């Protein structure tokens, strides 16, 4: 381990500082020390340990010699016994003045120095320098530089010190030029390349950083492909991998060889228990697998975990769960049986955590469903390992069971490698809603190693500007409850889509907790100030807009709750599963406005064929005032591309169509929309670019009922003034381009409205893109 040498040197210097506090078992006078200048004789004698008879035999002298060399403090150590005395003659290693690097361009000095055993002020040890050269080479190889050369040199300095300089010749990066997948019949090569992490050199490589050859990553890709097949019914799938240098391509060609085997469905799915205290029949509700389903190894694994957790809750923490699958002869069926039996009684003695140089121990410990002294469960340990990985704080996570101090005790050794958790983005471009725009976003998902989330976003656009400061503690008061605060402010200006300016500023307080792996509930309280103003230069505003402006700025105080259910396989690029969110808010706990609002959003993803993913979506919303008030105009719903693509922002919904006015959208209080979409990877573009094409159809409607502000305004209109309030269905057909970029999702859509009203405002082309 890389800390070994440092720890030994530290121990040596502590012994120097301690003077003569630590002495050898033999009489100090019988051990003579020669050649030492900076290192105390007592420290050297402390490595000699006499036997029970008080004598130093040959074996004990040999042990002392090895330990002195291991300190790294000495270039040479000799032990002799003239006249019955022990004489130790040492040649001290020089002290390092500074550690420097020359020739490194790809890696910074600080990154190279981070884990070196040779340090300024420490001894110059050949063993340490040798290990440091290997370490630097390994860092370069992680980045794909296999032709790198590292030569250590020393430069004399004053006061008996030397400077250690590592001269580096980086050479060219060994890049992956081609990835080939053979033997695949059920899934296209494009689909499978989207599963693995290794990419090839292309226009996106500067951002993706995935084209450097890394044997560990390639081996992990082999496992990812096998897991993919096993999750899709191919229980017998086998994946092999080979990599070779291709001189013509000047890089590595990686070949994955797939043996798919048949796709299985589940025949019988049973639970058996050999424990009298466990009734297997009562556990069927925990099963994620049912007869007739396509075999899914991930679902089987999750079922084993949930059964183990449920058994622990029922007072059987030592029960073991094993999934047995048996092919049905002559059929592509697997009979699956979950077998419950009494496991070995083991207890967790300690949980040791290593490698978390930044993240606090408790951030890792709190994801365990058990603590030190509790019963040991392999399923719960596996669940903890997955949860630690899901935090996103670490490059690697590994939990190993070690023997404890007794046969029924185990020590869990948790080893992690820290990863970057902060981000800084400066982006700009053009939005069909905000016009020309620029944005700065700074976020940290593991603030000061506490697991807290901090994010700041500042945006400045042609038609709007805003700021958002957010802080979230995902384990508030050491409970699995997320608590957060969000301070926000936004201004919008008159644009082609609205004749007025508006402002909004306030704060939102949030609490949320997971009920299980898929279901989360949350509560929020918001208080904000809002209002709108008119610009006479724009023209004569619609009468309802004038009346809303006359109300001035006012406070809104609301409380709400949300329920989120998600079974998505991937949050960024889902291919299967459901995501549903239901929100309810009530305003009127103070403030000047009183209304109740409900919004719902349900999405379902499913793989259609090959690389094509289908998505259907349904949205709805309803808001109504209470307490004898009318609904504030700014709290209504405004139809636009967020509901039905092909329409401009504020493009459909109730509208003042009085001639001579600005004919603004007045907002409604009820809407519904449905969408259907097909997505597939962009043809002729490498899958790791995360570029997809989409075909879609949107349908929906938005209108105002008697509960809305529109009907209140309509009662005060003169005969010459008109408000259009139609429940007509709007719909569109279109195509889009979706890029999951390093700046976040970017989407460009072209939609053709096939059903609209004469007073609607359409916009076929919409996008939010750009970055500089």
Written overview of the protein:
Helix content is 17%, strand content 42%. It contains 13 helices and 33 strands. The strands form seven sheets. Strands 16-17-18-19-20-21-22-23-24-25-26-28-29-31-32-33 form a 16-stranded antiparallel β-barrel. The protein has a three-stranded mixed beta sheet with strand order 1-3-2. It starts with a helix and ends with a strand. Residues 1-29 have low confidence and may be disordered.
SSE topology sketch:
Blueprint: H1 3-17, E1 31-34, H2 41-45, H3 58-70, E2 74-80, E3 86-92, E4 95-102, H4 109-113, H5 126-142, E5 149-156, E6 161-169, E7 176-182, H6 189-193, H7 205-208, H8 215-230, E8 238-246, E9 251-259, E10 265-273, H9 297-313, E11 319-327, E12 333-342, E13 347-354, H10 361-365, H11 378-390, E14 394-403, E15 409-418, E16 422-431, E17 435-447, E18 452-461, E19 464-473, E20 482-492, E21 500-514, E22 519-534, H12 543-550, E23 554-566, E24 577-591, E25 595-609, E26 612-625, E27 655-656, E28 670-681, E29 691-703, H13 709-714, E30 723-724, E31 730-741, E32 744-755, E33 765-769
Parallel strand pairs: 1-3, 4-6, 7-9, 10-12, 13-15
Antiparallel strand pairs: 2-3, 5-6, 8-9, 11-12, 14-15, 16-17, 16-33, 17-18, 18-19, 19-20, 20-21, 21-22, 22-23, 23-24, 24-25, 25-26, 26-28, 27-30, 28-29, 29-31, 31-32, 32-33
